[in-house]
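Sample intake sheet
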Amino acid sequence: MSDSTLSTSHDSAKHIALIAQETGISVRSVSATAQLIAEGATVPFIARYRKEATGELDEVQITTIRDSMLRLVDLDSRRTAILKSLEERSLLTPELNKKILACLTMTALEDAFAPFRPKRQTRATKAKERGLEPLATFLLENQSSHDIETEATKFIDAEKEVTTTAEALAGARDIIAEIVADDAALRGAVRNLYETEAIVSSKIMYGKEEETDAAKFRDYFDWTEPLRSIPSHRLLAIRRGEKDGFLLMRVDVPHERVCGTAVPQFVSSQAAAGQQVREAVEDGCKRLLMPSMETEMRLNSKKIADATAIQVFADNLRELLLASPLGQKRILAIDPGFRTGCKTVALDATGTLLHHTVLHITAGSNTQQYEAAKELLTIISKHKIEAIAIGNGTGSRESESFCRKLNLPSSIPVVVVNEAGASVYSASDVAREEFPDLDLTVRGAISIGRRLMDPLAELVKIDPKAIGVGQYQHDVDQRALKASLDDTVVSAVNAVGVELNTASKELLQYVSGLNRSLAENIVAHRAANGPFPSREALKQVPRLGDKAFEQAAGFLRFAASPHPLDSSAVHPERYALVEQMAADLGCTLHELLTKPELRQKIKAETYVTADVGLPTLKDIIAELAKPGRDPRKQFELFSFAEGVEKPSDLKVGMKLPGIVTNVTAFGAFVDVGVHQDGLVHVSQLSDQFVRDASEVVKVGQKVQVTVTEVDLERKRIALSMKSKPDTERRAGGNDRGNSPAPRRDNRPATPAPGNDWFSQAVQQGKKR
C-alpha cells in the first residue's frame, strides 16, 4: 500500500489519537503529518520543507506515523472482513460487535474472532455434529454434579455414532477443550506467560550429526535460552538450521504452568462433572492452546528478530551510501585478478570511460609485469590520472603494492575500494544498458572507479542485498526488508541532493517526488535537449506535474543555472522570500550568498509569517552560508599495514589499521587487508560494556585492531579493539607477532624498487 492510500476519513481521527498515544507525538503533529502524506508528500519533503506544520518532526518520526497509519488501515480492513463474516453467518450480536470495534491490535482482533472463526473438521466440530454440545454445556454449568452417567445416557444415539456414555463424555470434553483454547482472556494470559517464561531450545536432527553442512550449526546442537532475551541473530541462525533440515527448534512453557493458569478459570468443583471439565481443560491446553501459542510465539519472535536485523541492515546501508566521496577526479580503476590479469580502466572526472585494458601486475612473468608497469604509467600520464582505485578482492594488496612501487607523485592517492556488489552490477540490466559492448569484467572495474568518486551515485544501481552489509538478510521478511532499504536509499539520496544534469536515472528515481518513469523522462529530455538551464526548466519534462515538481525541486541541484539559488537546497517556493531579504539589505542575491557580513544582518524574526516559521528561516539562512553543501564527511586517505596481505601473514598480538565493513548485533567485521574480514566480537569492541556493536562503530569507520586469534583451517580471524586485549591464551607465549610471515604461495614476490626490470619500467614509463 502506498503512502497516498492513507485515508483522511472519519476513521483517521481515531487513528491519529491512537498514534499520538503510542508514540508520544502531539495530536496536532500526527494529524498534520498524516494529512501531508495523504496529499502525496514524501517523508524527505515533509521533514525538510514542512517543519512548521509537523512541529519539526524528523524522518524517523514521520516514517513511524506513516507506517502506523498503514498498519491501522490494515487493521480496519481485517475488522471489516470479520464483521462481514459474522453477519453473513448470523453470529454478530451487539455485544460482539462492540467488542470487535474496541480491538486496537491485530492480535486482540483475532482473539475476539477465534471462537467464531470457520473451522475445518476438528474433534469438537465432529462432536457438535453428533449433538453433544448440550452435554458439554451441562458439564460446564453443573460441575458439582456427581451423576454424569445419567446425563450422558441421554445422548446415546447409534445413528450419530454415539454408542456409549464414554463416547458421549469424550465428545463433550472435545467441545470444552476447543472452548478453552479459543477463550480470549485465557489466550491473553497464556500469551503473557509465553512472553515472559518461554524457553527456546534447539537440537540436532537425528542422523544429521556427521553431515558436513551441519557443522556451521554445531553451537546449536543442544541449546536452550529464554525467548524474551534471545538475540535476533541467534534466533535467525537457529531458524535457518531448522529450515536447512539440521536442527529441531521448540518454544516451550511447562504444561503445568499453562494448565495452572487455565484450570482456575474453568474448573469450579472436584465432583465428577468438574473432573470431566478439568480433563478437558488440560487436554485443550496441551493439544490445542499450547501448539497454537508456540506457533504464535515463533511468528512474533521471528517478526521481532526480522525487525532488528532489518534495522541493522538499514543502518549499515545508510553509512555505506553516505561514505565520503573523493569527488570528480580522473580515476584509474583496477579490478585485481591473478590468472586472468587485472582489468584496468581510465575514467574522466564525470565517470566516462576513456580507456580499458588488462594488465598482469599481480602474477605472470617478470616480462609481463615489466610491460604492465610501463603501460600503467603511460595511462596515468596520458589521461592525467588524479587517483587510483583498486577493488578489495583477490589480488588487491598485491596490486596496491605494485602501484605504490611506481613512485607516483604524492598527489595521486592509491585507494583500496570495497567492491562488494560490483560483480552484481556488472551483470545487471543497468550495466548492460550503460555499456552494451563491454565485457562484464570491464564494467566491474568502471563501477569500482566510480564508487571512489561518489559511493552514493554508484551504489544506488545495485540491489542493496548484494552489498553485503546485513545479517541474515535472506532469512527475514523480504517485503519488509525492501521497504526499509528503499526508505534508507531515499533518505540518503535526498539528504545529499542530486545534480540533475549529471545524475543517472537510477539515482534520480530515488529523489523525492520522482519515480522510475519520471527519471527516464528526465534523462531522455536531457539527452534530446541538452542540460537543463534551471530548476524552472524541469517543468518541461513530460508527465512531470506541479506536485512532482514541488516534491523534487528542492533536492535537485543545477550548478550551471544563472539563478544563484538553483544550486542550493532552498526550495523555489521560498525564492521570493530570499530575494526580499536581499532587497531589504540593499544587495544582490549573489552578494548575499558570498558575503557573511550581510547574512549576519538578517533578522529571521522579521520574516515570520503564517506559512514560514523560524525553523524554515533558520534552514534558509544556514543554506545561504553554504549553498548546496554536501553533508557527507570529507574524504580521508587510508592505507592497510604494509607486508600484511593474506591471513597467513597475521600473528596474534599484531596491531593493524582496518575498515569496518559490516556491523551486526554480535560484533563488527573489519577488513585489515588480507582478503578476509576479521570479527571484533561485541565483547571486544570497548573496555566498557557494550550491548550492541552499533553503539561503538559504523560501517566505513577506520579503526585500530589487535589480532587475538587466527584459525586458518576454519578461516576465522578474531580481533579486538580493547586497549588491553587478552591474547596470551591464543598467542602461545610468543609476543613477537608484529612482523609479517614469509610468503607461502608459489607466486613470485613483486620486486622492490631498485630491482632491475621494475626500476627500468618505472623510468621508461615516466619518460613516456
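Comment: The two ends are 61 Å apart (CA to CA). The first helix runs from residue 10 to 23.
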